UniProtKB/TrEMBL annotation:
SUPFAM superfamilies: cAMP-binding domain-like (SSF51206), Winged helix' DNA-binding domain (SSF46785). The keyword Transcription applies. Residues 154-221 form the HTH crp-type domain. Pfam families: cNMP_binding, HTH_Crp_2. One of its GO terms (biological process) is regulation of DNA-templated transcription. GO terms for molecular function: DNA binding. It comes from Facklamia hominis CCUG 36813. This is Cyclic nucleotide-binding domain-containing protein. Gene3D superfamilies: Jelly Rolls, Winged helix-like DNA-binding domain superfamily/Winged helix DNA-binding domain.
């Protein structure tokens, strides 16, 4: 493969295993690099869909509003996430919500039409995107559920309960900062609660691997008011 202008694209899950020529074609798209500050509006409700956004750093979120005027966050997008595939392939032409920057972010903006043409020619890329969107839907639902708990300990307990496999094991994703971002908490508070859980015997942790020792204790924790 030729040297890419945007090598960070290779870090993305849905670009793994695709043909080198496909990757080079994506890299040659007129990709715009955008930087957003926390609280900045990325797109307003009703704006036309023009780009697939790939999050390189930081976090974006989508805001919807109830009839009462209350703001509801419907999605969070972290580093290595991409959107809005589901709107593009669902036939939408405009945003049905506001897109805001939740945490200072760097984003690659890929033009939708050119990217769709490349996707249509590569079955592996299409499969990867289908898998990615499915995984994202599961993860985003968990993020929204975790954010409904007021305490860091409760968010951590919920995430572990929802994420462990049948043997009670969980692998912390990427870095501790990425894990903290997913729980929408700061890293130091998360580290403190992980140590508390270890000290209380709720979990065992070795590196990024976590084993759940006391499920009932964590279930009781998330029920606390």
């Amino acid at each position: 493969m030729k040297q890419l202008q945007h090598p960070k694209l290779l870090d993305l899950e849905f670009f793994q295993g695709i043909d080198d020529r496909t990757m080079e074609a994506i890299d040659q798209l007129p990709i715009r690099i955008k930087n957003f500050e926390s609280g900045e509006i990325v797109n307003f409700f009703g704006d036309c869909l023009e780009y697939i956004y790939i999050i390189i750093e930081g976090c974006l979120k989508t805001n919807e509003y109830l009839m009462s005027g209350k703001e509801v966050v419907s999605s969070y997008y972290f580093a290595k996430d991409a959107f809005p595939f589901y709107l593009v392939y669902g036939g939408r032409q405009t945003y049905p919500y506001n897109v805001c920057c939740h945490k200072k972010a760097k984003v690659y903006a890929l033009p939708i039409q050119g990217f769709k043409e490349i996707i249509a020619k590569d079955a592996k890329l299409m499969e990867n995107i289908l898998v990615f969107v499915s995984k994202y839907c599961v993860k985003n639902k968990m993020v929204i559920q975790a954010a409904s708990y007021p305490k860091v300990a409760q968010r951590l307990a919920f995430w572990l309960l929802a994420s462990v496999d049948c043997q009670g094991d969980y692998q912390i994703p990427g870095t501790q900062q990425l894990f903290a971002d997913r729980l929408l908490v700061n890293r130091s508070s998360l580290n403190q609660e992980i140590k508390n859980f270890e000290g209380l015997g709720y979990i065992q942790k070795k590196g990024r691997s976590v084993h759940l020792n006391d499920r009932s204790a964590l279930e009781a924790l998330i029920q606390e008011q």
